[in-house]
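Extended Data, panel c. Modelled sequence:
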Amino acid sequence: MAVGVPENEVFAAADAVLARGERPTVERVRLELGRGSPARVGGLLDQWWEQLAERLRGETRLPGLPAELAQAFVVIWQQATTLAQGVLEQSLESQRQVLAGEREQLAAMEAQARQQTAEALAARQAAEIRLSDLEQLLTQRLTQIEDLRQQREQLLGLRDEARQQLVELRQQLLESQQQAEQTRLEQQRYTRDVEDRAFCEIDRAREESKGLAAQFKDAGSRLQAMQQTLLSGQTELADVREQRATAEAQGQAWREQLEQARQACVAASEQRDDLKRTLQRVEAELASTREQAAASLARTEVLSEQLAAYQSSLGEKSSRRSVKASPKTR
């Protein structure tokens, strides 16, 4: 705006503002003029306030009127001024009530914000405690999983050892069966040979028994010896068969141990799957708790920002009202 607005225009604008029942201020006078710098208008407005008392007494504006008429005009002007001041006081009182209501509302909002902040902090602390518990539980589950993994490796090692022992036992059993079969075949051949020789000796003894009783007795003795040899061979065959049965029993025992080891491996695998599912559930709960804690913290920050913005707005309103009321105080 241009600088150097005339004095009479500023005074006329102040009179117009006062005539509307409002207190003349720099902003209102500039608004009425539509121009003028705040410094220029403020200086002239101070002069206007100094001349206002003289104008009310009728010393400058009513020089040519009779004394009674001037006094009556002054009385009317004072009444109008008093009425304007009453209107202004009522307006200020209503503004004070509005300001008091806003202050009470601000106090209530501050209390609510403090309560919500305390609740958010409590929820955050509970979430942190829950998070710590879940982390401890997760550590325990991981430790259990590691123990089970080690047990599984041990069981797998035992299973491999059992398989190796079973292979060795099967090899031993096969060798024993082969040896028993070979012994049986040899015993059969030996028995056939003995029987063949015995039969030959019996036939020859029978032929010679007619005239050779002595030779018959000798042949009988030889036959008895051969029969004893045959009995001994049958005993050895029974021993071989017993050894074979023992080897088969040992093989059955190793097969049972192998089945038990396989069942233990299956149980360990099932327990590992259960622990994996538990770990997944615990990780899901942990993620949910972290999201809730983040949401509570974000809500607390939003409430703090709203409270700060409202306090700033209320402070600006109080400052503007103080500036508007300052000319009257002077």
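The chain has two domains: 1-61, 119-316. This feature is highlighted in the accompanying rendering.
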